[in-house]
Each structure stands twice: as structure tokens, then as C-alpha cells.
């Protein structure tokens, strides 16, 4: 069948590969599956119920959920079928941001997951004239529930209306507005059409590896309001892959062992956390166990996927695999064909070690404005490279500007920024290419990202610093949870560091060092500072002299999404962090930019 609109993917699965576990979420300790038939039926019920409520083609409907859940998808398809425009919103944003987004897009209805979000949106409801009602997925006292709309749609008498509206929905129609979380100013609403996202799914499909399982499963935890995970949900539907939603970031380890997924999407920070736990366990095992663990790590430290490693190395690797790496794979469910990484650059060193351990990671690249995939690695020698993000997907053109900025053209490029024609014009070239804001280079047809154009900076000596590459390397230390390299216009680079306090305390205990319970006191401890100095110097050895971190300051608080230092995909909000720790910056440089 011809797929031109997003809701066609569900119909395609229904006709070609229906599942009993099309979407599965865990509730009250039990995995609750929704079959393809039930999924399609409930989506139709939502469409019928919304039409009865007077919702029309072109109305904007917001969805915000604290966790990924089945209801999100049912609402999503139900809205698409009657030509509504979904506005997915991150649950962690401030009430003022909800107010701005709701007013900018003229939200008519909102669906939220729980009481906290209901209260947050209720607090700004009177300042949003277009907002008629807020429905919840959980049962919340005093709040209308989404089941009310589902119940209204049980009567199939107006299904002919749904069918008629579906026929009117065109590929080029606006289907969603996704507001990007800016660190300064108001967020921008990226307008994506059915064609934008459908083309991205179909063009990404050739990169999907073959899974040995007859009924492959995917574990999903990245927010559905993020276009990366959302596009992949449609891709899973298209391929008949069962979608299992992790309960939370904290439960991923348990959920992996329960679900045994064939594939999952990750962000680099999750890979770093997984590796840090593996390393800490191996390093603290003691005696011969630790020696074997370290030997196995050294064996794959420079691993080259699809390379010829020789007979002797292969024998050693088989031994390491049986003793060490098999346990790594069991720890991630034992059935992963691959993980797909996006949102930020992944450390090449980590990627080599995971490939060497039999857990391939395919790194991809894209932006919300490109629906999102521009390029992605494939599981073949020609289309893969460590530190690279693969060849462009079908139909997507890449060219590099004079300064190395990556320019993109294709059916996946957004319609524009909502209500912002001038801003849209600024990011497009005269010949129709989208300016990504990223710097890159092509290597044998594969794209390599070198840094964010806006994040690169010069020292006062005129040397360019690419902070993300340095940060990815240093974060491999089990004592460093987060790090931000600073120093634009200064003599030398420095760093603000959020320690991993759990690993710090374990280290102190093993060394017989008595640490205070106060994090503010811990970061001033001389032995702790010496430890971090040693860690920084160890990583400085692989950097050019001008790139080396000369000074650093530790922060006593953890950097979190709720705290505002991280985006929902765990990227640094650099301007927020810089402003929050301006006193530490002044301590390093005796001044603060702009003062």
C-alpha cells in the first residue's frame, strides 16, 4: 500500500504484520500489551470522540507526558486521522513556557499524563484564551479524563465522518509543531508535514539491520515529544517491531532484562552511564577478576569494526568474550542486535569498546528541523565509521559551506518555524539548503561532525576549541558525571565539573579517606581535588597543548533536567550553566563575559 501520511503506518502494520504486542507499557508492576487491532480501534474511537466534541481539521492539540505511554500513541494517531495538528510538549518546562507555546500555537485541547502536569497547566489556563479543556491519562480528581473521549467514540455512527476527513488529509499538510527548547529567548515551533516525517521513515528504513528474532522488540525511553524517538516509533510500526516503553531512566537496567529487546535508541549520556557502571563493577571486583576485566578492556580499546584483527587476537577475543563481554550483553538483555545513538556526539573510544563487546552502536545525525535523520551508520563496512555518522539517507543532499557548516536539502526539511517567517529565512540558503549550525567533513562518503558551530570558540590566542569533543573524552572518567569546557576569549580553556558523588564516596572508602556528607565540603577536600587534577591530566595527554584544560572548578549540585542544566535528551544547556556558575567562572578567570 502507498504510505503518504503518518497514520498509514498503523494501517500498514495491521495489514502486513499485526502483533499482540504492538505497544506495551508497564503499569502497576505488569507489562500491559496493546495489539495492533486494539491500537487501531482505539485511535478510531479517539477520532470519533474528538469530532463529537467539535474538534476540527487544523485544530492544535497539545500532548505532554512524564513518561512514554500507550495513550500518547493512541492520541497521536487519533488526531492525525481527523487532520488535527499535534503539539508535543516536554513535561519538564516551566509554566511560563507552557503559556508561551500554548498561546503561540493557539492550543484548543491538551492531554497530560498526571496530576502534576494537570496542576501546572491549570495554573496558566486562564492566560490561554484558546484552551478549552485539559484531559489527563491518569485518574486525577477534578480533571476530565481521556477515557471520556474514548467512551464518546465507542459509538461508530460517525465513523463515516472520520473516513471522509482522512481522505482529505494530504501528504503536505502540517501534522505537528515541535517547539525546540532554546536556552535563551522563546522556543521556536518547528513545522513538520506528513511528507517530512514519512519520507524520513522510508528513507531510513534501508539502514535497519536484520534481526534474528521472528518477532523483534524495541525498548523505548527517549521522550516521544522528541522527533528522534517519535520518528523511530513509526519506523518500528512499519517493520512490525513491538514497542516496549521503559518505566523511567532509572529502571532501564531492569527493563532491559525483562524485555530482552532487539534494538533500542540511546543518547551518548546513557551509554556513558552504562559504561561507568560496568567499569566500576569490574575495577572494584579485586584480584584476578579485575586483572582479567582490564585485560579484556585493553583488548578492544582500539577495536575496528569489520577490520581484520588476526588469528592470535581473535583467539584472545573469544576468551575475553566468554569471560567478560558475555556478561555485558546479558546486562542489556542478551538479545540486542544494535543500539542507535543520536542527539549528540558519541565518544569514539566508547563506541569501539561496545562494538568489541558485541554490542554495536550505530551513530546517526539529524535535527528537529530535518524530521530528524540526515545520515546514519549502517551495519556494513562501507556505510560505517567510528566517529562518523554514516552516509546521507536516500533523497537527502548534503553540502559543506566554506566554513564547514553542514547544509541539507531534501523532503525531510521542515516547512518552517511557526509564526516566524524571518527566522525561517535566516536558516535557509538562497538555493534552498537548510543551515544546520553544525560543522562537519565528508570521509569516503560518510559524514563526520566536528562540532556545533555555535559551541566552538576561540581563545584569546586565536586557537579554536571544540568543547564537545573534549567533554566526551573526559566524561569517560567514572568520577566525572558532567563537564562543560569554557574559555571563550580567555587565555586557556577551563572546565566546570559535576562530580559523580556516588563513585567518589566509594573511592574514598576504598582509600580510607573520611569524606563529609556535605557535597559542598567534599568538593573542597584536598585529596578529592588531587584526584580530579590527576583525571584531567590523564585526559589532557591526548589533546593539543592549546586544547588542554588548565583549570577546573567542581560544582556541589547535580546537573539535571528538572534543575534546568540539561535538556530532556541530556545535552548541556551551556548558557544556563554558565550563568548559574558565574562565580566559579570568575574564580578561574577573575572576570565574567560581558561584565
UniProtKB/TrEMBL annotation:
<protein>
    <submittedName>
        <fullName>Long-chain acyl-CoA synthetase</fullName>
    </submittedName>
</protein>
<dbReference type="InterPro" id="IPR000873">
    <property type="entry name" value="AMP-dep_synth/lig_dom"/>
</dbReference>
<dbReference type="InterPro" id="IPR042099">
    <property type="entry name" value="ANL_N_sf"/>
</dbReference>
<keyword id="KW-0067">ATP-binding</keyword>
<feature type="domain" description="AMP-dependent synthetase/ligase">
    <location>
        <begin position="13"/>
        <end position="418"/>
    </location>
</feature>
<dbReference type="Pfam" id="PF00501">
    <property type="entry name" value="AMP-binding"/>
</dbReference>
<dbReference type="Pfam" id="PF23562">
    <property type="entry name" value="AMP-binding_C_3"/>
</dbReference>
<dbReference type="GO" id="GO:0016020">
    <property type="term" value="C:membrane"/>
</dbReference>
<dbReference type="InterPro" id="IPR020845">
    <property type="entry name" value="AMP-binding_CS"/>
</dbReference>
<dbReference type="GO" id="GO:0005524">
    <property type="term" value="F:ATP binding"/>
</dbReference>
<dbReference type="GO" id="GO:0004467">
    <property type="term" value="F:long-chain fatty acid-CoA ligase activity"/>
</dbReference>
<keyword id="KW-0547">Nucleotide-binding</keyword>
